[in-house]
Request: fold
Amino acid sequence: MVPMNRRRELLTRLEDGPPDNALLEELETLFEQDGDLASATWLRLERLGYGHETGLHNLGDVLDEHVPPAIVQAIVRSRVRRGRLQIGDDGPVVEWPHFFVEPFDELRRLRNAIAHGGPITVDFLVAEGSGEPRSLVFPSGVFIDIVARVTLEIADVLRRGDP
Reply:
């Protein structure tokens, strides 16, 4: 188990702002050494990204089979956001859930690059015939929200001391 004073130090660093890749890698190694392979796997995916083929429908395939539901729920809470999509030129606007797969560092970059303002359109790499939309409209703060939520979820695992 990670000593309490080490947990406090890491929590203080997370309270200073979202983790960079060095801190994510440090946490990943710490969890790995502590035998918490599920949390280590999660942090590796946050650092490297989930892969463009990942979505809610196959998230379980990307994760180790021993990843507990609490971590799966943390990932979903952090990375799924509803975008808006207009069906046809004059059709209705519907909400569509999207799983953001980008590495955490890229989400931080996008958070810093996009000024507050109106909605933003996000384009996706989509396989032909997948039935997934090629773009969705999100509120401008979507990346602020994702980065903050991932940071909170990591801090929560550190506070609890287990996945």
Summary: The beta strands are 80-86, 93-99, 120-123, 135-138. The longest helix spans residues 142-160.
